[in-house]
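User: Sequence recovery, please. Input:
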């Protein structure tokens, strides 16, 4: 085994939208690594609700309290992005056992594509384990209060998006 390539971790996702669970995970990762790059994936195949530039801006605002965090949007293969930013670790969040199978498959594929990079799984704090971006979007779309699940700017951006789509 060789020495670690980098003390930079990459936490990728669509962050559509970023939730308090994501913020919690990034905060704990910020204590473990010299630098954490939050990679906001364009992910057109997922049909994100919020445009990439807005998701990047919201993530930057939500994570501004952490001095060693950088937020960057990307539209490439994750392996290419990780190499571009010289990441040594991929961070992935696991909320429940149901997440594990998919995440394990991703980690195995990434091990083949970027063998020099390790995958590290982190679980969110218990109070955030049930929060998912898709649930937040649906609750917000139907007029529910998501203020306990996302930063205030995110709740406002979602409501603005629904209003814009009504026109």
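Assistant: Recovered sequence (167 residues):
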């Amino acid at each position: 085994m060789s020495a670690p390539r980098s003390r930079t971790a990459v936490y990728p996702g669509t962050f559509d939208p970023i939730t308090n669970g994501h913020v919690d995970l990034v905060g704990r990762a910020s204590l473990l690594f010299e630098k954490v790059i939050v990679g906001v994936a364009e992910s057109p195949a997922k049909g994100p609700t919020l445009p990439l530039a807005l998701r990047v801006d919201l993530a930057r605002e939500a994570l501004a309290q952490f001095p060693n965090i950088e937020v960057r949007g990307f539209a490439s293969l994750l392996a290419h992005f990780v190499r571009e930013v010289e990441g040594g670790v991929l961070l992935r969040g696991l909320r429940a056992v149901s997440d594990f199978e998919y995440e394990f498959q991703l980690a195995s594929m990434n091990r083949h594509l970027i063998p020099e990079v390790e995958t590290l799984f982190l679980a969110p704090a218990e109070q955030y384990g049930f929060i998912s971006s898709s649930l937040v979007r649906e609750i917000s779309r139907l007029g529910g209060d998501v203020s306990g699940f996302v930063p205030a700017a995110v709740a406002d951006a979602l409501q603005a998006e629904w209003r814009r789509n009504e026109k």
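The beta strands are 8-13, 35-41, 69-74, 89-93, 118-122.
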